[in-house]
Structures are given as C-alpha cells and as structure tokens.
C-alpha cells in the first residue's frame, strides 16, 4: 500500500524533471540575448551600455531606417507624400502585423508612412521600399548604405520590415544612433511617433508603443519591435525640461518587462545626464538616392530650392501666386533650402485670387513641411511649376472667426498645445490656421479662418474633451 501511495508522486517528479531538461531549459537557453544602451540625445554622450555592439535581430526597429529613407526621398523630390503608390502582390502578401493592403490597390504615400510608424505594418513598409527603389532588395541595399554613412558599422539590412532573415542584423548602439538621426535630421516628422493612434487611409490604427507613451512622463517615441528570434525590442526617447534621453533594449522577455526595463534605463539617463548641455546634432549622411542599388528604376530628383514639396491647394481655393524675387540664397546656403524657399516666396508674393476678394488679414501661410505627413485631407494631385508657391486661402468673407485654446507663458508652450489640439480634433480644425498671438499678458494659442458655425462646433467638441476654448469673433 505504501508503494502505491508514493508511486504517483515519484512519477510526477520524473515528469517535471523531464519537462525541465527537455522543454523549459532549451527554451530558456534559446531566449533572445539581452542588450541595452542609453545616451544623452543632446550630445550623444554614452550613459550606459550592455552588449551594445553584439549583432542581434532588430525586428521592427528596422522600420526606423525604412521611414528615415522615406523622409529623405520626400525631402529630395523622389516622391511626394501625396503620390498614389500601387501595391504589389509581394507587399500585400507580407505576414502580420499589417495594414491589410490589397494587390493592385493605390494609396497615398503618407498613409504608408503612418502605418509603418504607428502600427508597424509590414505590408506598408515593403510598399514604401518598392515605391522608392523599385524592389525590396534594392531598397535594402540602400538602407545598408545609408546605415554605413551614419556610422552604423555593424548593421546589415535584408528587408524593409524587420522579419527574421539571414544576415539581417544590427546592434543596440547602431539602433540608438539611428533613433538620434531620426530625431535631429527630420524633426518635422518626429511627432508622428508620439501619436497614440492615427488614420492610415484604410482605417485608424493604434500605436504599438502606446503603453509606454501613456505611462512614462516625457516619452514621445519612437519604435517597438518583436520577433521570436529578436525578443521584445524598443528604442525609446523622452524629454523632460531641457534634457532628452534615448534608451534602447534588445531581447526583452515580454512587452511589459521590456517597457519596465526601458523606464528604468530612461530614469537612469535623466539621473546621470547634466541638466544643461549643448545640442550637438549628428551630421546628416550624404544623399545618394538610388545610385548603385541596381534597382533598374530611374528616379528624377527635383531641385529642392526651386520646387515646393507642399501639397497644392484644393480646387475651390486655387489662386495664382507670383514670386517677386528669388529664394533667399543666404538661408539656402545654411542647408534649409525648402524652408528658405517658402519663407522668402511668401514674404514677396503678390496673391491674386480671381474667385472672390479676400478679407483683410485672412491670407494664411501655406502648410509647413513638417505638417505634410500629418494633414488629414489629401489634396488633389497637380503639377507644381518651378518658382511657384501656392498658399491655402479662405475666399469666403464668412471665415473670419476663430477659437482660443489657452494663454501661455512661452511661445513654445502655445505652439505645442496648438499642435496637440489639432491632432486630437482634426475633424473640425482641418484647414484652419494655427496662430500664436503675443501680448503683454502672454502667448494666446488660436485657430483662425473659421465660420461662426465651425468655431462654435469646434469649441463644443473641445470643451467635451476638457480643453479650454472660447470663440473669437471678427475684429
């Protein structure tokens, strides 16, 4: 009888031992290696590292380079944000996570960018690569070439999405470098990574990094990644006051533990970083386009100093804008050619609107380059002549109302609230002008160029979101 009672216990012990030796232990040994790095984003100074130069699977951190080249291609006129991209069978067949693109479908390039950045959609990332370089293989070679130019010496890309592939490897150090380049080379697009969700043409998609964005004070990006071979990866950035930290983790065991570890590393970074430090931006890598990729695709690159990359006006508001002078050469020499062309052209423009007279003070500046990827409406595609700038104008005498969403002590605070409000309430604020009015009492954050009905509706919707708002009538 005693043998019969102890038999099951012994059998259970044998089974547990078997499971440990042949199942659990091999799985634990096969877990993705851990690596981490923390830097002061302002200076690039190293604050912490562990296995930072070990070549590992980057997973969807890869899409940071896909997006970097997408921004580069837009900046250099290879493609526009409103270009309709035809989805190939190869792109549509990528495994999840995906947006759900169909072969033969056409979709604006801006929506592919949103889907790759926010949802980490593999089909969108592949479509971006094919649209720019003609094939994913050619695009991957361009990615690797751009990485080397940045100093990412231990990174090799084989695809645009980051799914596990032989030879597709990077390091915590290299991905931290890439994150810093995204921040400083294309700041006009960086706020895209802080969105909790966004509309991607087909549907609204949530941010894969939304939990850290919601939980960690100052977090504003940038990219998550996961595959079985890579584990849970994340490059994160956070800003508090004048300090900004970038932390990278490879090989997390779960999204929750990865986020907790990244939060610890960011805290460490803020403790170790000086409260004040000069901003030493990284040098932007040399632009070479698709040269040497073997893509077999001819890409015409527009001159950034003579062609506006901004979306043209809607047909109802089209007007002719004449340039009284040339683009300011001094600003162009400083490297900001697009902004120089916009600023100088608007300052010297003689606006002619044959449809209707424009009310005094209702001439609104055109979209800034940083707002192109964020615009909710897709303007009609029309060729933009050289040396011509098209501005969005209100031709209705009724668009003289506006709303005020707060008064702040600095212009930066007011502009930040305006951008956040515009993103949160795009339905009623689309097409309005964001303007900061300075007075002796502070900086008023306002939206202008609305009808009375639009202003009333916007204020009611914002008030429902607990946002302070009051209407501004015609002066």
Summarize the structure.
By secondary structure, the protein is an alpha+beta fold.
Using DSSP, what is the number of strands?
15
Low-confidence stretches: 25-29, 293-397
**What class do helices, strands and sheet pairing give?**
alpha+beta
Query: How many DSSP H or I helices?
Result: 15
The whole-angstrom Rg is: 25 Å
Query: Strand order of the main beta sheet, please?
Result: 2-1-9-8-7
Give the percentage of residues in beta strands.
15-25%
Largest sheet: 5 strands, antiparallel
Please tell me the overall pLDDT.
80
Give the SSE string: HEEHEHEHHHHHEEHEEEHEHHEEHHEEHE
Distance between the termini: 99 Å
Helix % is 25-40%
Overall geometry = globular
Kindly list the characteristics that best describe this protein.
475 residues; alpha+beta; 5-stranded antiparallel sheet; 4-stranded antiparallel sheet; 15 helices; 19% strand
What layout of secondary structure does this protein have?
Blueprint: H1 2-29, E1 35-40, E2 45-50, H2 62-75, E3 84-86, H3 89-92, E4 106-108, H4 109-119, H5 122-133, H6 136-150, H7 172-185, H8 187-190, E5 197-199, E6 204-206, H9 210-215, E7 219-227, E8 231-240, E9 243-252, H10 255-272, E10 320-323, H11 329-333, H12 337-348, E11 349-352, E12 401-408, H13 411-424, H14 426-429, E13 433-439, E14 442-450, H15 452-464, E15 470-472
Antiparallel strand pairs: 1-2, 1-9, 3-4, 5-6, 7-8, 8-9, 10-11, 12-14, 12-15, 13-14
């Amino acid at each position: 009888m005693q043998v019969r009672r102890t038999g099951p216990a012994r059998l259970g012990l044998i089974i547990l031992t078997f499971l440990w030796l042949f199942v659990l232990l091999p799985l634990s040994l096969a877990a993705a290696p851990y690596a981490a790095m923390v830097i002061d984003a302002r200076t690039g100074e190293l604050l912490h590292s562990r296995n930072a130069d070990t070549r590992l699977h980057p997973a969807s951190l890869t899409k940071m380079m896909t997006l970097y080249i997408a921004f580069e291609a837009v900046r250099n006129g290879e493609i526009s944000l409103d270009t309709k991209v035809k989805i190939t069978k190869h792109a549509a067949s990528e495994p999840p996570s995906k947006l759900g693109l169909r072969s033969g479908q056409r979709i604006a390039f801006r929506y592919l960018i949103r889907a790759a950045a926010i949802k980490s959609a593999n089909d969108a990332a592949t479509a971006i690569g094919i649209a720019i370089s003609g094939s994913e293989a050619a695009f991957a070679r361009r990615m690797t070439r751009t990485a080397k130019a940045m100093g990412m010496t231990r990174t090799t890309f084989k695809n645009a999405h980051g799914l596990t592939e032989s030879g597709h490897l990077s390091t915590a150090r290299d991905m931290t470098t890439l994150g810093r380049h995204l921040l400083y080379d294309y700041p006009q697009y960086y706020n895209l990574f802080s969105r909790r969700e966004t509309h991607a043409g087909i549907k609204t998609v949530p941010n894969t990094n939304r939990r850290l964005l919601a939980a960690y004070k100052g977090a504003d990006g940038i990219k998550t990644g996961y595959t079985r071979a890579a584990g849970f990866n994340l490059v994160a950035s956070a800003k508090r006051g004048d300090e900004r930290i970038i932390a990278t983790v490879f090989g997390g065991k779960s999204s929750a533990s990865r986020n907790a570890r990244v939060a610890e590393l960011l805290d460490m970074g803020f403790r170790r970083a000086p409260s004040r430090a000069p901003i030493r931006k990284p040098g932007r890598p040399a632009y070479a386009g698709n040269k040497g990729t073997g893509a077999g695709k001819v890409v015409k690159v527009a001159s950034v100093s003579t062609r506006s990359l901004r979306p043209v006006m809607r047909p109802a508001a089209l007007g002719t804008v004449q340039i009284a002078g040339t683009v300011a050469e001094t600003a162009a020499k400083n490297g900001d050619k697009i902004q120089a062309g916009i600023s100088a052209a608007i300052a010297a423009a003689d606006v002619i609107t044959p449809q209707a007279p424009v009310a005094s003070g209702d001439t609104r500046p055109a979209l800034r380059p940083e707002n192109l990827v964020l615009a909710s409406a897709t303007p009609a595609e029309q060729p933009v002549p050289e040396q011509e700038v098209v501005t969005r104008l209100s031709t209705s005498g009724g668009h003289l109302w506006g709303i005020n969403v707060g008064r702040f002590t600095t212009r930066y605070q007011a502009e930040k609230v305006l951008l956040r409000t515009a993103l949160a309430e795009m339905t009623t604020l689309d097409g309005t002008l964001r303007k900061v009015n300075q007075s002796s009492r502070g900086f008023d954050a306002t939206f202008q160029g609305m009808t009375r009905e639009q202003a009333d509706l916007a204020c009611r919707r914002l008030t429902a979101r607990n946002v302070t708002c009051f209407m501004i009538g015609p002066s």
